[in-house]
Design brief:
By secondary structure, the chain is α/β, with parallel strands linked by helices. The chain is built from 4 helices and 6 strands. Strands 4-3-2-1-5-6 form a 6-stranded mixed beta sheet, with helices on both faces. Helix 2 links the parallel strand 5 and strand 6. Helix 3 crosses helix 4. The longest helix has 17 residues.
Length: about 150
């Protein structure tokens, strides 16, 4: 495992139909989206997840936690935590949960600015949301404004 500050990180934007994925390098503090994982009622194809982990060999996994605006847990945040726990249990990788409030709204805005036509089922923004989650995690680690809190 690489030392903190030099790790390769995979981030996930958990959803019930799709799970956005991004990969980033902690040293460069940059992230890029990968192909989203399809999910059935929030359950991904675990063989695809395993293939992704084998391909990228991440040192750490980050999972977005969709809290309510009042900091309370939602059904989706409980499911995202469960997904994070399963990632850790199945693959033995360190998992950090990160406040992701507003990431999907911000991802849709970025996509619209880039010419997205608004059909998010057909053209998902899950990968963009995963990039935002990971970039927020990087910012928080550096103590920068806008960095989301790790929970």
């Amino acid at each position: 495992m690489a030392a903190p500050g030099q790790r390769l990180v995979l981030a996930f934007d958990y959803g019930t139909r799709r799970i956005g994925v991004a990969v980033g390098n902690e040293l460069l503090k940059s992230a890029r989206e990968l192909e989203p994982l399809t999910a059935r009622d929030g359950i991904p194809d675990w063989q695809r997840v395993e293939a992704l982990l084998k391909e990228w060999q991440p040192d750490l996994l980050v999972v977005g936690l969709p809290l309510n605006m009042d900091d309370s847990e939602s059904e989706m945040s409980r499911r995202a935590r469960k997904f994070g726990n399963r990632l850790h249990g199945r693959f033995g990788k360190q998992v950090e949960m990160v406040d992701e409030r507003g990431s999907t709204k911000e991802a849709k805005s970025i996509a619209r600015d880039a010419g997205h036509r608004g059909n998010y089922r057909e053209e998902s923004v899950d990968g963009i949301a995963a990039v935002l989650i990971l970039e927020g995690w990087f910012a928080h680690r550096e103590g920068l404004p806008g960095g989301r809190l790790s929970l």
